[in-house]
Write a structure and sequence with these properties.
mainly alpha; about 10% strand
Length: about 180
């Protein structure tokens, strides 16, 4: 099965059933909800990071993404202690990027969830900002991502045990969000 799959459904219940069938046959999926991209779009907006969007908006040059990211992270780190009671250690770049993502700063990260309901919420939010837009929910096979990461790291001589596979937190989703979307 491909790592990404596009599914077209007219109703949320149909989407749930389709996602459940795919998940039964394959383990580990994460979802991303966004507005649907125009037909023939080579890079769907759902798969463009905030950092890429920012760089493209400034001068269209992705080559400058890394130095811009360093400057953004440095500035965020410099000011964070004024607003946050606890901040990550300076060397924990992933933690800093996650914190920045949470606060809306442009980062190289994309938000994914194990909850189809949460993805549907964000698809609705994004689509509501664009009149006439449809919803899109992306599914990614997390097991495929894990295996591909292991293979790439091994090919480059990076110790694979240094990658941490975090457990799914599907069981922590509040029932309230599920009930709200099923009404």
């Amino acid at each position: 099965m491909p790592p990404f799959q596009r599914i077209e459904c007219l109703h949320f219940r149909e989407l749930q059933e389709t996602a459940a069938r795919i998940a039964e046959a394959n383990t580990g999926f994460a979802f991303r909800g966004y507005s649907a991209s125009p037909a023939g779009d080579p890079t769907p907006p759902a798969l463009v990071t905030g950092l890429e969007r920012t760089c493209l908006g400034i001068d269209g040059m992705l080559e400058l993404a890394f130095p811009r990211e360093v400057a953004i992270v440095r500035e965020f780190m410099r000011r964070a202690h004024h607003y946050l009671p606890n901040t990550p250690r300076d060397a924990d770049w992933i933690e800093w990027l996650a914190l920045m993502q949470h606060h809306g700063a442009p980062t190289r990260l994309l938000d994914w969830t194990y909850s189809l309901h949460v993805a549907a919420h964000f698809a609705l939010v994004h689509a509501s900002r664009e009149p006439g837009s449809d919803l899109a929910i992306w599914m990614v096979n997390t097991e495929w991502c894990w295996r591909a990461s292991e293979e790439m790291c091994s090919a480059r001589g990076i110790l694979v045990p240094s990658l941490i596979k975090r457990p799914s937190r599907r069981d922590t989703e509040p029932e309230a969000s599920r009930e709200l979307l099923l009404r």
